[in-house]
Specification:
Pathway: Glycan biosynthesis; Cell wall biogenesis; peptidoglycan biosynthesis. By secondary structure, the protein is mostly beta strands. The chain has 3 domains: 40-125, Immunoglobulin-like (Sandwich); 135-231, Sandwich (Immunoglobulin-like), CATH 2.60.40; 234-371, Beta Barrel (L,D-transpeptidase catalytic domain-like), CATH 2.40.440.10. The chain has 4 helices and 27 strands. The strands form 7 sheets. The protein has a 5-stranded mixed sheet with strand order 21-20-19-27-22, with no helix packed on it. Strands 1-3-6-5 form a 4-stranded antiparallel sheet, with no helix packed on it. Strand 5 and strand 6 (90-93) form a beta hairpin. The termini are far apart. Residues 1-26 have low confidence and may be disordered.
Amino acid sequence: MPRQTLLGALLLALVLLTACTSQTTGDAVAPQADIPPVAKITATPADAAEDVPVTEPVRIAVAEGALDSVELTNPDGKPVDGELAEDKASWSTTEVLGYGKEYTYTAAATGTDGKKVELTGSFTTVKPKSTPRATINPIDDAVVGVGMPISIKFPEGPVKDKAAVERALKVETSVPVEGSWGWLHDQQVDWRPKEYWPAHTEVKVTAKLYGLAYGGGAYGKSDLSTAFTIGRNQVVKVHTPDHRMDVYRDGKLHASYPASNGKDHDPNLNTPNGTMIVMAKEPVGNFSNPRYGYTDVEKKWAVRFSNHGEFIHENEENRANIGKRNTSHGCVNLFEADAKAYFDSAIIGDPVEVTGSKADMPTSSDVNDWLFSWAQWQSMSALR
């Protein structure tokens, strides 16, 4: 081949090789978009929520990651107590919130991809129209008789949602006791056993009322609780025609006293039939009653057993009739020594059972729980 022809072929081959070869080295990389973090934080209640219940826990949770920090603060900037779960996947409040307040939360977490995420927000709790107080009786550490009911009262206004309130009440006893709540009216609910309490029963009552909607915009002011003890079993029995008052302990006759009860011929002055309880004790009681023409009348060892006006007390001025005739205006009259002996033995909540009179005790008395049959009492529950 001629020299010129060989040189031309080599030049052509070099040109072709150059045209097929990249001018860069290494693999080509296409541009990629930013990948978002995998972790996601959620809050309950959500940001900007309103009318949040004060008793429901605030919960911060994270998916595909672990919480690094959570802070919930009240309007004063003070942190609200909370607890982080062991797996760091959630955090919940351990204290209740306040009414009508704005709370702010800040949470940070690290995702399984190593990226950090944050969440901030705020919410507002429910603002009641009113927060009426409630009371509970018996009080802590009281020792009461076997007829004593548990009473929760709402002196500042009626309860509309009685069922909600009743569901918030709990009675615990050291031995099994069958009982039920019953609404005497819309400002008082009582719990009484089907039969008298077993002697020496330990009783604990809790009323989770804070944050509870009573209806009509009213919410519970605070929780209530009490722990008390049932004492020995003592029951007073008065059969008015017998002119005696008998005291039973554990079902056995313990003492028997001559008595003069309410006038038999006038139902308005009878000692009315029914089961009542000892409500109060006074060493000296005032029994003035201008309606019947006597004032400044004081008697010793007065034991009240109704708000209808009935007491057990001494009446030495009526000595001639005690044990023989019923001449009082409704009270049980005893000799002074007997009245003192009974006074010393009585405790609040002891049952007083009266039979044999023409009149029955009206259910208008403040403490009338035992004037209802068990079936009637059960029907007074808002949950029946």
